[in-house]
Description:
Blueprint: H1 12-27, H2 31-46, H3 57-63
Helix pairs in contact: 1-2
Amino acid sequence: MPITRKPIEIPPQVARQFAADMKAYHAEQDNNQRDRIAVGTRHMLLEHTPTGTKLRLSEVKSYSS
């Protein structure tokens, strides 16, 4: 049986920042800078998730695809 995750509920301003970060991620040509954007976005999202929630960098990158 697959594990389902409870959706993350984040404030609107954080959602807008996430969208802006993803635009920047796609506009960036340098892979190192793209990784920095994704890492910063991951940290921002983790601030608004329940304690113990795991959010992998690869998951943040997949949301941006």
